[in-house]
Amino acid sequence: MRNWNFALVFLSLLLVALVACAAPPAGAGLKFGEVTDVGGIDDRSFNASAWAGMQKAGTDFGATVNFVQSNSPADYAPNIQSFLDQDYDLIVTVGFLLGADTQTAAEANPETKFAIVDFCYDPAVSNIQCILFNTDEAAFLAGYLSAGMTQTGKVGVFGGIPIPPVTIFMDGFLAGVRYYNQQKGTAVEVVGWDGANGLFTNNFESLDDGRAFAENLMDEGVDIIVPVAGPVGLGSAEAVRTRGNAWLIGVDTDWFVSAPEYQEVYLTSILKRIDNAVYAVAKSVVEDTYDASVPYFGTLANGGVGIADFHNADSLVSAELKSELQTITQGIIAGTISVKPADYPA
Q1: Is 130 in contact with 296 (CB distance < 8 Å)?
Q2: pTM to 2 decimals?
Q3: Measuring CA to CA, which residue among 326, 286, 302, 160 is closest to residue 231?
Q4: Averaged pLDDT score across all residues of the chain
């Protein structure tokens, strides 16, 4: 009798295990789509980072994930519509420039969930999750680092298009340099941005512009360059590698990983964890906790922004400077150190 009881218990446990194994993934049947901006899915920057988060969501939750690439602003609305026509459950649009078309589509399709990177609405739209980043916090660290590493006393920054998701990097970088000057009694100069006016390529695609802007900055004596311009910055990396005697700081992703052909020129990268944010929104759809009333903010505190490892440049960054960066990070998180340029007059 005991043997029979044991056998019945074993079979019951086996049946439970088989049922559990046969259960479909939590997101099975759901469809998530990404609409890129004109930088494209292979920009090795914000579009690619968003896609990495989307792919992880597909793997972890069993959802179907796809992207549609925009080659010009005229593609934004029809690309969004293509996912609507296929009854996608979540549509993520990447970039400030898709703000108007995303809102139009969302308001016409209130049953579909949307998310948009680097844009938000006032008043909020009930089915658009805003994804925003305090990238000035991370850029402040990069500015302080640059001021501590420059050999010429000049560091440079330029942008793609003068929109808030670009200028917030430039503001933070400028503030970090000015804070260094205030603390150290130095006069490191920022070329390319003064808090109101600066250098912009007016596109996110031209490698030639990236090369030319970097060359011009180096001609002015700049030895650390931050190109806040997506793929344009790869042209700058080529210029720095060709010219030498300068460093480049990447943006959005760790360029040492995403653009390894230029590893020798990178000091660090200003990280904007779009992948984590997109994944978090997708997870909320799977778990039925999606809430567009509260924007997602990536900060130093939650790991949504930061600076990358120094990699090949690590031995050149002093222990003192590394320690100061850690202290400043905690000060920014605590709110005792401002990241606004206006708080550090030139």
Answers
A1: yes
A2: 0.87
A3: 160
A4: 93
The C-alpha atoms of residue 203 and residue 72 are separated, in whole angstroms, by: 11
- Which pLDDT score, from 0 to 100, does residue 44 have? 83
Report helix, strand or coil for 234: helix
The radius of gyration of the chain from alpha carbons, rounded to an integer in Å, stands at: 23
| Domains (range + CATH), the chain | 31-133+276-298 (3.40.50.2300), 135-272+310-343 (3.40.50.2300)
Q: What is the pLDDT of residues 255-275, one digit of tens each?
A: 999 999 999 999 999 999 999
> Tokens in use for 312?
């090949």
Give me the pLDDT at residue 2, please. Answer: 47
What is the predicted pLDDT for the residue at 23?
63
Phi-psi region of 345 (alpha: psi -120 to 50; beta: other; left: phi over 0): beta
pLDDT 10s digits, 96-105? 999 999 999 9
- Distance (Å, whole) CA 305 – CA 273: 6
For every residue of 170-190, DSSP letters joined together read: HHHHHHHHHHHHHHHT--PEE
Whole-Å CA distances, 72 to 49, 162, 185 = 20, 18, 47
Residues 6+ apart with CB under 8 A from 285: 27, 30, 32, 89, 90, 113
